[in-house]
Amino acid sequence: MHDLILHHYPASPFAEKARLLLGFKQLSWRSVTIPPVMPKPDLTALTGGYRRTPVLQIGADIYCDTALIARRLDAEKATPVLFPEDQQFVAAALAHWADTVLFLHAVSLVFQPESMAQRFAQVPPEFVKIFSKDRVQLFSGGSVSAIPLEQAKSHWPLLMARLQQQLARDDEEFLLGNAPCIADFAVAHGLWFLKATPVTAPLVDDYPEVSAWLSKVLGVGHGSYSELSAHDAVEIAHKATPAPLPETAFVDPNGFQAGQPVVIRAVDYGTDPVEGELLYAGLEELILRREDERAGLVHVHFPRLGYRIEAR
């Protein structure tokens, strides 16, 4: 058995989503704090170039993207369940909407000048320049572009009204029932991001049902964790052996074969390529085998949705 290791940094909204998932599952984990901007040499030694936050490590298996991390945590501990059996499609679809549409609106609102001035009030000006340049690079080359601020402001009341409507039912406390699921955590992390400054907090607080629901979701906490150095995490991967591959069939409509050298990258943003040998292509998951001088032999796992495979 290997520890669950989360590579993250405190202010990352998607990292907050992963921390809440671990808390919901009441799991113990190790915390590796990574830089918020590139370069991230210890992280990319494990991932092969994937730079987005967070990343989950279990021995020599590296899981990219919270969409897949959620499924891996459901496999790690069956209950409480993140994808309710009778609502798997609805939960996954709502989570995808939250991680894309809702989140990109939240980013535009958070990055408005008044909000950023408060977020970086105690930060050296040189880091602000580095951070801004890094985020431009993060969103270059992908299919997603920033939502104009005036458009985000125009859309936001409608997005929140729809959430209010979903939460206004008397018989259910959460988005899809009386227990939180992946949809709740996917919606929550974008709103948590907005709550960070007085400039954007009213965009959540002005909606009573949403605000009360968010408090309950954030109340699950982050579980039990202890700190781990990035160096030690890389050493753990080097000494470990990747887990056996899934037993389900290899499925790829574009003709890629097991063992083929490929490149996998995100479609939307953070499109840094990861090269390796395609070991497995399932309905939800892609697994790439790669070797690194420091991390050794690792299997890097990606969700299928939102990623593309290219021949190398």
Automatic annotation (TrEMBL):
Residues 2-81 form the GST N-terminal domain. GO terms for molecular function: transferase activity. InterPro entries: Glutathione-S-Trfase_C_sf, Glutathione_S-Trfase_N, Thioredoxin-like_sf. Keywords: Transferase. Signal peptide: none annotated. This is Glutathione S-transferase.
